[in-house]
Amino acid sequence: MSAKRARKTPIILTMGICLLLNLSAVSADDGFWQQLRDAPNRVVVMRNAESRGNVDGTDMLAWDASGNCAGESTLTATGREQARRIGAAFAKRGIEPLAISSPMCRCSETAEIAFGHVVSDPALRQRHPEDSQGQEAFLAAASTLLTRYRGERPIVFVNHRPNIDALTMELLDIGELLVGEVTEDGEIEVIDRIRMAD
């Protein structure tokens, strides 16, 4: 074998490995979306898009119950674009989910930009980590809403990292989507997760 041909071989192998990895990622993503299209009682759990609190430390627990977002951590321009891309990914595949969201503006804005109409409940908001009663109220409200809306139409549940952790035992980053099955008692059985492209 010539030296020139020997040099090409590792390059070809590397390209082949990269192609296989990319195909595997595409296949995994296809499986994620197929779950939403074809199977009943599916829910996608996601965090809100980037907010000011992620950038400048705005208080994540501040909540304006009037809905005017005064003092709250609201979406950045990047966050609004992230929400648009997520909504476009669902629309591209013909999936029209029902969105359930925390009433805090960074979540409700994410859900509204991505999906339009939003179902919400005050108990779905983020609380102080030591607020055990608030955590119980969140889990009860989440279970009630997930049970009520489970069915042929998929649900997208937009919420906060601590609440999602309590609900699914999964830590999600911004841009990650988790798909699960909603059981008859309103619990989520995790099936898969993907990361949206930046």
Write a brief caption for the model.
This protein is an alpha/beta fold and 198 residues long. It has helices at 3-38, 52-56, 77-92, 105-115, 132-149, 161-168, and strands at residues 42-47, 98-101, 118-120, 155-159, 176-182, 188-195.
What does this structure look like?
With about 200 residues, the chain is α/β, with parallel strands linked by helices. It has a single domain (about 5-195), classed as Rossmann fold. It contains six helices and six strands. The protein has helices at about 5-40, 50-55, 75-90, 105-115, 130-150, 160-170; strands spanning about 40-45, 100, 120, 155-160, 175-180, 190-195. It has a six-stranded mixed β-sheet. Helix 4 links the parallel strand 2 and strand 3 (about 120). Helix 3 packs parallel to helix 4 (about 105-115). The longest helix has about 35 residues, at about 5-40. The protein is globular, with a radius of gyration of 20 Å. The N and C termini lie far apart (about 45 Å). The model is unreliable at about 10-30 (pLDDT under 50).
SSE arrangement:
Elements: H1 3-38, E1 42-47, H2 52-56, H3 77-92, E2 98-101, H4 105-115, E3 118-120, H5 132-149, E4 155-159, H6 161-168, E5 176-182, E6 188-195
Parallel strand pairs: 1-4, 2-3, 2-4
Antiparallel strand pairs: 1-5, 5-6
Helix pairs in contact: 3-4
Keywords:
alpha/beta, Rossmann fold, about 200 residues, globular, six-stranded mixed beta sheet, single chain
